[in-house]
Design brief:
Elements (H helix, E strand, L loop, with lengths): L2 H9 L6 H12 L5 H14 L3 H12 L15 E5 L8 H10 L4 E5 L9 H5 L11 H11 L1 E5 L6 H12 L6 H14 L4 E8 L8 H17 L3 E8 L7 E2 L1 H12 L5 H17 L6 H13 L2 H12 L18 E6 L4 E6 L1 H11 L15 E4 L6 E2 L4 E7 L5 H11 E4 L10 E3 L1
Parallel strand pairs: 1-4, 2-3, 4-5
Antiparallel strand pairs: 5-13, 6-9, 7-11, 8-10, 8-12, 9-11
């Protein structure tokens, strides 16, 4: 079975056989197929697509390329939430404690930020001492003991995805629904949770700019999950503006703590409650999503979720004093307010550009091996529908290198569009089961 024949078949739009897909993935993982041939195959897939059968086989082959997490010793229902990435998306830091406080088991393996999207591991590592590199045994034992752990994926889980994603990133083949679906779901399947909820972002700060594409991606991932034996659902959520106000690692941790204390931004709090409510419903802890939301909100209101977050921080060697004293988190040396040059109503935001502004300051990375500055970022003061007067604050830059402030300011200014007052249609999350 020659690799070039498999590439040619997909280039010509042919459906591939199971053994063709599996041999391609597994031989590439162990180094028998060079990068240039896999790059050609990925471009063929980007242009010609994979049908559902091929996508499911592709996903399972990536799972089979390495080890899987064994959670058989963990009693109870194991749940996992995955976001397709966004600006200011820190929901894991609130949703996981809510679910664990309700008695569910939340073994969360997360990733790092790349480009304008933030990473959960980067946020948590801004907490002094917090350890995201947990050995598997410690990870599993922590889930047994306190109901949750948030750590990085071990090197032997889905190694094919690590190699393939690195190629997609440099060959302009990231934005392919079958490849995105296979990448996400292979990791979710390998991490062995019973229930998976996918938070599919749509808008100017998401990979999916179009609601139709977002639905297609959500339905593809749901079908893969179910086909491979997992109870799977999805919610399509808004990324036409940053989520909450904070964009940047320590800044987002601080906002997550505020939210756990009942003081967070309304949009961010509502999304955390929505995601938690859906998962409580999927786990049969309530009779409806509405009831699940009520339970989730009560878990915030009573302080039970905050207590669970504190347990997670302590269990992973973090300094729990940050809960009551956020000044212990890394803080930037230079604070600069970006004021509006216009008056009007905010009618549009280029959310990705806000993420780029934070990245310019050092909050993000362009390559996976790049370092980050946990202290820097942006606080958004004006969002869609807000009235702004000339000279009023649009955003506050938190920087350590003053030479980068003007570049970040430029991106922030360019991200805003102003117009006449008009009633904006509220974004209503779309739930797909």
């Amino acid at each position: 079975m020659r690799t070039q024949d498999i590439i040619a078949a997909k280039r010509d739009g042919q459906e591939l056989a199971e053994d063709q897909i599996r041999n391609l993935i597994l031989n590439y993982t162990i180094g028998r197929i060079p990068d240039y041939q896999m790059s050609a195959f990925l471009m063929a897939v980007y242009l010609k697509g994979l049908n559902f059968r091929e996508t499911s086989i592709f996903t399972q082959a990536m799972v089979d390329s390495g080890a899987t997490l064994d959670l058989s010793s963990v009693s109870g229902t194991k749940v996992d939430k995955h976001s397709t990435g966004g600006v200011g998306d820190k929901t894991t830091l609130v949703v996981v404690p809510i679910l664990a406080a309700r008695g569910l088991k939340a073994p969360k393996m997360s990733g790092r930020g790349l480009g304008f999207t933030g990473g959960t591991l980067d946020k948590l590592e801004s907490i002094p001492g917090f350890n995201t590199a947990l050995p598997v045994e410690r990870f599993v034992n922590q889930v047994k003991r306190i109901g949750a752990a948030i750590a990085g994926q071990t090197a032997d889980i889905v190694p094919a995805d690590k190699k393939i994603y690195a190629l997609r990133d440099v060959t302009a083949t990231v934005e392919s629904i079958p490849l995105i679906a296979a990448s996400v779901m292979s990791k979710k399947i390998a991490c062995a949770s019973d229930i998976i909820l996918l938070d599919v972002k749509v808008g100017s700060g998401a990979f999916m700019h179009d609601i139709g594409q977002a639905r297609e991606l959500a339905r593809t991932m749901i079908a893969i999950g179910r086909n491979l034996g997992r109870k799977t659902g999805a919610v399509i959520t808004d990324m036409n503006q940053p989520l909450g106000k904070a964009v940047g690692n320590a800044l987002e941790v601080r906002e997550a703590i505020d939210t756990l204390q009942g003081l967070g931004p309304v949009d961010f709090t509502n999304l955390c409650v929505q995601l938690s409510g859906i998962m409580l419903y999927m786990a049969a802890q309530c009779k409806s999503v509405d009831e699940g939301r009520d339970i989730a909100r009560a878990t915030l209101d009573t302080g039970a979720a905050l207590e669970k977050f504190t347990e997670i921080v302590q269990a992973q060697d973090g300094d729990p004093r940050i809960i009551d004293d956020p000044s212990l988190l890394p803080a930037a040396n230079h604070i600069y307010t970006v004021t509006s040059l216009d008056s009007g109503v905010v009618t549009g935001m280029d959310t990705a550009r806000i993420g780029v502004a934070a990245s310019v300051l050092g909050a993000g990375r362009e390559k996976k091996e790049d370092g980050i500055d946990p202290a820097v970022g942006v606080i958004i003061e004006k969002k869609l529908g807000n009235r702004v007067e000339k000279g009023e604050a649009l955003a506050v830059i938190n920087a350590n290198n003053p030479a980068l402030i003007s570049q970040a300011e430029f991106h922030i200014r360019e991200s805003y569009a102003f117009g006449d007052p008009a009633e904006l249609s509220p974004f209503v999350p779309e739930i797909i089961f």
